[in-house]
Amino acid sequence: MPEKISWRQKINPIWWFGNIDDPEPPDWFEPTQLNYERRRGWRFRNPFHNFFWYVLGIADKEFTAHGKATENVFVDGLNYTFLKTKHLPVCFPFISYRGLGIKFYVGWRPDSGAFGLKLTIDRR
Known about the structure:
The chain is α+β, with helices and mostly antiparallel strands. It has two domains: 7-55, no CATH class; 63-121, no CATH class.
């Protein structure tokens, strides 16, 4: 987790487009491209990282997870979790499913606190 994120950062729409956790591309990302191409590609790979992790998400807060599989995003079948922080009076829900060639999730991830959604359909 990065240093404390201020409320000023969280209300700044320009900051939403950044990636405070990994501002530079790692070595494994497009190693054959030129450096400026790698940086541009890295920024477009996940342009709303800060927004989903720290504005909508609670990745900068301490939280506890309650539910079926509290440390995993996916399990076989249905998974559900509720995240609870010390200072916010609401629960943050998460639901995922893996099976029948479908894999999806929506909500606040129990492994990080980031908000997200994903849908993958296996067409075999």
